């Protein structure tokens, strides 16, 4: 017995007795995700700054409500062009140079908007800004997902939404900062300041490595190996990730050449749309339904209307002063930013599905309460302070609920579940759905509010949120802890798979 005990003591190691330490986050992967995700500032800044700038544009250029809706919402339609082109260019010139292109295009748009002499020229500038935003929205989550270690992918791929919210907050602050300037100058500076982040992003991204998955698709295995060694938590993980990517790209495991000829569908991008919609397997069909559903409901619940038209909503709630309305919108930006930061810490701890369902549950309660309060205010002869206070609180709670789940998960989930061969153009498809619904919502909010009242509009959005919760409960499986190459096995059944211990 003593001899056996001595043998165990000789072979035992320290880690056999002490619990394993949580691995540190890879700093290089963190820096890459951080820089790539900064492109999302472009969208956030435009949303935030336009919500306040439109007050002064309307007064200076004497435009109608319909022209306001078109000016605010048209960027989302232009973004469709950018996201479509980004899906192609990211497979052609790579993820990194597509990010540089996004910053350059938005830079041109910001300059044109800042010098706009009239409404038509302003719309011309919106075209370039929209294309740049479309590029950024598609490529940032794809690149971030492809460079992130499995252990922290949820944390890192939520960065784009973090920067969208940060951009919104900066836009709100810009509105307040320039609101005291002469009418003709203030709104032009609000829009023109967008050149600063776009220029910094275009230059900073040049220091980043290319996506290892894109390098493998192009047959540059040596380059991919070197990148993976930098962005993985260990050498063993780097080797395993390379083997998984090679398998997904159809490259034999025995092939270790620095450069190999890869002549397949992935290289040219041909056959992707056919595989997604015509010859799709049950798993691929399930993935496409999940991607479209998340992007559709993320925008259909009308949160962009809350952000874009928050001054109008606060005015309907009884806040009249321009300064007070702009300060209230700054509060919206602060709440969004705080809760998206909370979400980044929870995604890898609690998973995507629980946060998504919790987020939509909060949206349902907040939107229905906001709708009720606005209806009471609209039909009351006197100022109902309780309804006014509740309106402000529920605006804040709705953006908090959105930011804790629906906001970041649309980008995290939809980039990680798409197989490598479909990822770039599948992500572009998701952005097309996202921006199309966002354009519909933002370009109809004022007209819808006149047709069915502003309270009725939020009753409609609340109903859509309820439908979204039901759809997500049925079709969204959990993906936390799986590698990108393992995702496809989680799909194929349109029922959430619940284990006996309660895990999904």
UniProtKB/TrEMBL annotation:
Q: What is its main location?
A: membrane
Residue ranges spanning the membrane: these are: 28-56, 68-85, 97-115, 121-143, 155-173, 185-208, 326-350, 356-377, 384-406, 426-446, 458-476
Annotated GO CC locations: membrane
Domain Major facilitator superfamily (MFS) profile, by residue range, is 32-480
Q: Keywords, A to Z? A: Membrane, Sugar transport, Symport, Transmembrane, Transmembrane helix, Transport
Database matches in Pfam families: Sugar_tr (PF00083)
| Bilayer topology | Multi-pass membrane protein
Q: Which SUPFAM superfamilies match?
A: MFS general substrate transporter (SSF103473)
Source organism, top-level taxon: Eukaryota
GO molecular function terms noted in the UniProt entry: symporter activity
Q: Which residues, if any, are the signal sequence?
A: none
Where does it reside? Membrane
Which PROSITE patterns does this chain map to?
A: MFS (PS50850), SUGAR_TRANSPORT_1 (PS00216), SUGAR_TRANSPORT_2 (PS00217)
Which family does this protein fall into?
Answer: Belongs to the major facilitator superfamily. Sugar transporter (TC 2.A.1.1) family.
Which NCBIfam families does this one have?
A: SP
> What is the protein name given in its UniProt record?
Major facilitator superfamily (MFS) profile domain-containing protein
């Amino acid at each position: 017995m003593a001899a056996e005990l001595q043998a165990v003591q000789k072979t035992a190691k320290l880690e056999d007795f002490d619990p394993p330490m949580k691995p540190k986050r890879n700093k290089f992967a963190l820096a890459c995700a951080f820089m790539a995700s900064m492109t999302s500032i472009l969208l956030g800044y435009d949303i935030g700054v336009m919500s306040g700038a439109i007050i002064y544009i309307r007064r200076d250029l004497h435009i109608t409500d319909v022209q306001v809706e078109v000016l605010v919402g048209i960027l989302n339609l232009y973004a469709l062009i950018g996201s479509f082109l980004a899906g192609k260019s990211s497979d052609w010139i790579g993820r990194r140079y597509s990010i540089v292109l996004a910053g350059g295009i938005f830079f041109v748009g910001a300059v044109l908007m800042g010098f706009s002499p009239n409404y038509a020229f302003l719309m011309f500038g919106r075209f370039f800004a929209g294309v740049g935003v479309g590029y950024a929205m598609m490529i940032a989550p794809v690149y971030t997902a492809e460079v992130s270690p499995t252990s922290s992918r949820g944390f890192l791929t939520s960065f784009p939404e973090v920067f969208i919210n940060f951009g919104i907050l900066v836009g709100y602050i810009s509105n307040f900062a320039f609101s005291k300037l002469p009418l003709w100058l203030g709104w032009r500076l609000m829009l023109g300041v967008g050149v600063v982040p776009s220029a910094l992003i275009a230059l900073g991204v040049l220091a980043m490595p290319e996506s290892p998955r894109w390098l493998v698709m192009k047959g540059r295995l040596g380059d991919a190996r070197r990148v993976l060694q930098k962005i993985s938590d260990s050498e063993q993980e780097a080797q395993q990730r390379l083997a998984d990517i090679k398998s997904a790209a159809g490259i034999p495991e025995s092939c270790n050449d620095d450069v190999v000829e890869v002549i397949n569908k992935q290289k040219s991008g041909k056959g992707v749309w056919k595989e997604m919609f015509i010859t799709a397997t049950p798993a691929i069909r399930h993935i496409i339904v999940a991607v479209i559903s998340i992007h559709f409901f993320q925008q259909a619940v009308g949160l962009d209307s809350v952000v874009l038209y928050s001054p109008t909503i606060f005015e309907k709630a009884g806040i009249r002063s321009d300064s007070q309305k702009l300060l209230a919108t700054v509060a919206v930006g602060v709440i969004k930013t705080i809760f998206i930061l909370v979400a980044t810490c929870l995604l890898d701890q609690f998973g995507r599905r629980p946060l998504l369902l919790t987020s939509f549950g909060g949206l349902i309660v907040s939107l229905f309460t906001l709708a009720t309060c606005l209806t009471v205010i609209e039909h009351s002869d006197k100022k109902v302070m309780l309804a006014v206070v509740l309106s402000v609180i529920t605006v804040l709670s709705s953006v908090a609920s959105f930011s804790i789940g629906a906001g970041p998960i649309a980008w995290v989930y939809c980039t990680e579940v798409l197989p490598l061969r479909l990822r770039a153009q599948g992500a572009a498809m998701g952005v097309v759905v996202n921006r199309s619904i966002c354009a519909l919502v933002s370009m109809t909010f004022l007209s819808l509010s006149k047709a069915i009242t502003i309270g009725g509009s939020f009753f409609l959005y609340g109903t859509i949120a309820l439908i979204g919760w039901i759809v997500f409960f049925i079709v969204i499986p959990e993906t936390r802890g799986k590698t990108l190459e393992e995702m496809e096995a989680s799909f194929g059944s349109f029922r959430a798979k619940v284990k006996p211990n309660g895990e999904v």
